[in-house]
Structures are given as structure tokens and as C-alpha cells.
Amino acid sequence: MVISLSTIYDIAKRAGVSPATVSRALNNLTSVKEETRKKIHKIAKEMNYSPNFLARSLVKKQTNTIALIISDITNPFFTTMARGVEDAASQKGFNTIFCNTDENIEKEKQYVDLMLQRRVDGIIIASCGSGNNLVEIKNRNLPLVLVDRAFPGNNGWDSVVGDSEEGAYFLTKHLIEVHHHQKIAIISGPPVLSTSQDRVRGYLRALRDYQIKENPEWIILGEFKENFGYQLALKFLHSFGDKPTAIFAGNNFIAIGIIRAVREMGLDIPDNLALVTFDDLEMASYICPFLTVAKQPAYTMGRVATEFLLQRIFGEKIKEKRIVVLKPEIIIRKSCGCIQ
Ligand code: RIB
């Protein structure tokens, strides 16, 4: 059975108007008389018309679609950010394609190439690399906004990030000043990422401000993953030498791994090991407020990045690149040693 796909031309013929009038009526433009608009919508429905998205985007040279490329779609930080992106995009009639790279540079490259092939109108990316995958985007002058992670100089792109250095400083300072910890370790994410680097910088600045000598063996960068935190915590807890009495986890998943290791050993947080981290586990915190955390405004990060991107897509004349650094909210709970 062949199902003929009606087109704008078929509708125009039956309605006795031009295809351009049909297009304006179906896009609900005010330049069409109400009576004609209603007649065209009625005929389109009778003919089971559905717009040819590809044809329309070729004509308009715009797909009304943006891409958000993030590194861990299971992390509430990124899903909250994605919500901010999608809300801002849909309010302007844009669709959003979500791409998850798993902090894998090859996967990121594949997604960037795919989004270019899909002719998205712009890309928002929390890159898992150092920007090498974004050269073609630059060459094509496609609008792009960096979110959460940035590069030195940002290659001229707008960026919207969290203040990882400041958040890390306050979390470490809290452990030192309020709970008198002197032996604090940091376990954070991939060393290539600005968020990992900035968290170490904030941690070291706090140690220096309190004349605490850093122990290089207690500064570990690797993965923003639960198992990474778990393995490192076990290593610290099993070591015969000097042990940290507090750990600054670079993100929520590392913190969960540390908690798993501590509890597996029959120990307790914060009595045996104090813990602070980045990125709240909001739902869990409603049920069991436990983690002391630097909570990044992920939703706002997503919204602002999308607004910047859409301004570039609409061709607004914005000469300078914009750099927005959003402060995290420090939420003090039990894991650092503060009694709720
Ligand atoms: O995995 C999530 C972490 O990586 C967050 O802390 C976010 O800042 C990102 O860099």
C-alpha cells in the first residue's frame, strides 16, 4: 500500500491559494486572513499533511535544533543542567539533542561530527578534552558555548562555568578552620579538565593560607567516577603509613565511592574520616541530609549558556566573548563533622 505524502503544493491546489500562502498559514503568520488560515488548516488535516522537516530546514538554512554535549548523563549535575538548556531552548522554539560522551574523547569527536552532519544551529559542550575536537566547529564558525569546563583563552567562545576554585577553597578551609583537620586529601576528576584543576588550586590555596604542607601522595586526579573514589579510599584506609583524616571529593560520585569504602570497613563518616564534595545529590539530601557540599547552579548554567548560544544563532552582534563564573552554594551538613 502506497501512502502518498501530501505537500504544501497539494494543499495550495485544493485551497485555491499559492504555496507561499499555505506555508504562512501553517506557520500561523499574521499575514494570512483568519478565514483563509482556518480553511488551509482544515484541508491540511483532511490530507494528513505533516511538514517536511528536512525540506523546511534546507529552505530556512536553520534546523531550529541545538546540541548539548555532556560527559555523564547519569550525574544529577548534568541532568539538571540539561533541564536548564531544554527549558531555555524550547521557549524559543528550538529542539535540543543530548549527547553523552562518558568522558571519552573519541566519543566526543564522533558526536561533534554527527551534530555537524545533522546541521544543528549551535552546540553547547562540557568538553571532556582540551578542545582539539572543536576545531571544525571553529572552522565553520558555528555558534558554540562552553559550559562547566573551559580552556585557556576559550578559543574566543562564550563560557559559563562554576567557580570550582572558590568552592574548593571554602570546603577545605571549613575542614581546617572549623574541624581542625591538618591531614586532608583530595580525590578529583581527569587532570585535563578545568574543573579538576581548579578544585586542586582552591584546595592548595586553603592549605597554604593555614601553613599546612601539602602531601603530593594525597593529591589524586583521575575520574569523576564512584569506583575511583572507592578504590582510592580503600588505599588510604589500608595504608600503614600516615593517613588523611579528611577527604575533599572532586564530585558527588567520587564521594559515594568513598562512603562505600568507609562503610565496608566498618568505619564511620565523619568520626573516622571527614568528607566534603562538589555537586549535591539533591533527592538523597531531602531524605537523608548528609553530605557537606559545594552545590553548583547547574540549571542556571544551562539556561545562561543556551541564551548566549541563541543570541549568536539569531545573529545578534556581540563582539566580545562572554565569560560567566557562577558561585557555588556551600551547604554544611554532617559529613564534615558539623552536627545538623
Ligand atoms: O562529573 C561531574 C563533575 O564534572 C561536576 O563537578 C562538574 O563540575 C563537571 O566538571
Can you put this structure into words, describing what you see?
- With 340 residues, the chain is of the alpha/beta class.
- It has 3 domains: 8-51, Orthogonal Bundle (434 Repressor (Amino-terminal Domain)), CATH 1.10.260.40; 63-162 and 298-327, Response regulator (Rossmann fold); 164-296, 3-Layer(aba) Sandwich (Rossmann fold), CATH 3.40.50.2300.
- Helix content is 44%, strand content 16%.
- It has a 6-stranded parallel β-sheet with strand order 2-1-3-4-5-11, with helices on both faces.
- Helix 11 (252-264) links the parallel strand 8 and strand 9 (274-278).
- Helix 1 packs across helix 2 (19-26).
- The model has no long low-confidence stretch (mean pLDDT 92).
- Bound molecules: alpha-D-ribofuranose (RIB).
- Alpha-D-ribofuranose (RIB) binds at residues 72, 75, 77, 148-149, 162, 189, 193, 195, 224, 251, 278-279, 296.
Give a short summary of the structure.
This protein folds into three domains: 8-51, lambda repressor-like DNA-binding domains (434 Repressor (Amino-terminal Domain), Orthogonal Bundle); 63-162 and 298-327, Response regulator (Rossmann fold); 164-296, Rossmann fold (3-Layer(aba) Sandwich), CATH 3.40.50. It has 13 helices and twelve strands.
Beta content comes to 15-25%
| CATH classification, class level of the largest domain | Alpha Beta
> In terms of per-residue confidence, which ranges show pLDDT below 50 for 5 or more consecutive residues?
none
CATH topology of the largest domain: Rossmann fold
Could you tell me how far the N terminus lies from the C terminus, measured between alpha carbons in angstroms? 69 Å
Number of helices: 13
- Identify the overall geometry: elongated
Largest sheet: 6 strands, parallel
Instruction: Tell me which CATH architecture of the largest domain applies here.
Output: 3-Layer(aba) Sandwich
Write down the Rg.
26 Å
Structural category: alpha/beta
